[in-house]
Design brief:
Strand content: 25-35%
Largest sheet: 6 strands, parallel
Shape: globular
CATH architecture: 3-Layer(aba) Sandwich
C-alpha cells in the first residue's frame, strides 16, 4: 500500500500590483513542468479579465474554475481535487469565507500542495478576512511589495481611490477593480482616516462590486 504523505500550503501575499497572481501562475506552470497535475480555482467575484480565467496585471492568463462563497460550493472543491490532482492553485483567496480554511486543511491531509495568492491587508490597512489564519498555517510565505505611486518607495498598502480621493474607512471592504480605483502606496503615503463615531461593520456584510 502506497504511503500517503501530507501536503503543504504556500501563501503568496502583498498589496495590489505587487505581482501576486504573476507569482502564482509561475509556480503552477513550474509544477506542470515537473509533470504534476494542477487544478486552478478563483473566486467568482473577480471577473475583471474573464469569468473563467485568472489574469495578472502584466497580461498572463490561465483557465480557472470560478467558485462561489456558499458552503456547498466551497465543499465542491474537495470533489474537484480528485486523486490525480497534485497541486491546487487558488487566486484571490481573501475573498473566500472562513470555511475554505477547513477545506485547505483537508486537502493538505490528502497530500495535496496548495498554493494561494491574495491580499494580506484590505484598503483600510487591516488584516483581510481569512488571510491571518492562512499565514499562520502556511509552510511557506512569500510577501511581495509593489512600488508606491507617490514617492517610489516599497509599497505595503493598497489605497482605494473614489472620485480622486481616498475612500472612507466605512466603505465596503470588497470592491473589485484595478488601477481605476486602487493604487499601491508606502506607509508614509497611505491615507486612511477613521471616524470614531462609526462602528466597524463586519467584513462579511460589506461587499460591493464594479
Amino acid at each position: 500500500m502506497k504511503q500517503l504523505y501530507k501536503g503543504r500550503l504556500e501563501v503568496v501575499c502583498g498589496s495590489m500590483f505587487s505581482g501576486k497572481t504573476e507569482e502564482l501562475l509561475r509556480r503552477l506552470k513550474r509544477a506542470e513542468y515537473a509533470k504534476k497535475n494542477v487544478l486552478t480555482l478563483k473566486h467568482h467575484l473577480d471577473n475583471r479579465a474573464s469569468y473563467t480565467c485568472i489574469a495578472s496585471h502584466n497580461g498572463q492568463k490561465r483557465e480557472a474554475f470560478p467558485m462561489g462563497g456558499s458552503t456547498a460550493r466551497i465543499n465542491k472543491i474537495l470533489e474537484l481535487a480528485q486523486d490525480d490532482v497534485d497541486v491546487l492553485g487558488i487566486d484571490e483567496i481573501q475573498f473566500f469565507p472562513k470555511n475554505i480554511v477547513d477545506v485547505v486543511k483537508e486537502l493538505i491531509d490528502m497530500g495535496k500542495t496548495i498554493i494561494v495568492s491574495g491580499l494580506d491587508m484590505d484598503f483600510r490597512g487591516e488584516p483581510f478576512g481569512i488571510m491571518p489564519t492562512l499565514l499562520a498555517l502556511a509552510d511557506n510565505i512569500t510577501k511581495l511589495k509593489a512600488i508606491c505611486v507617490i514617492c517610489g518607495k516599497e509599497a505595503h498598502n493598497t489605497q482605494r481611490i473614489i472620485n480622486g480621493m481616498p475612500a472612507k474607512y466605512d466603505d465596503p471592504i470588497i470592491l473589485v477593480g484595478a488601477s481605476e480605483c486602487y493604487e499601491a502606496r508606502c506607509r508614509d503615503c497611505f491615507v486612511m482616516k477613521k471616524d470614531p463615531m462609526k462602528v466597524h461593520t463586519p467584513q462579511t456584510q460589506t461587499i460591493a462590486q464594479i
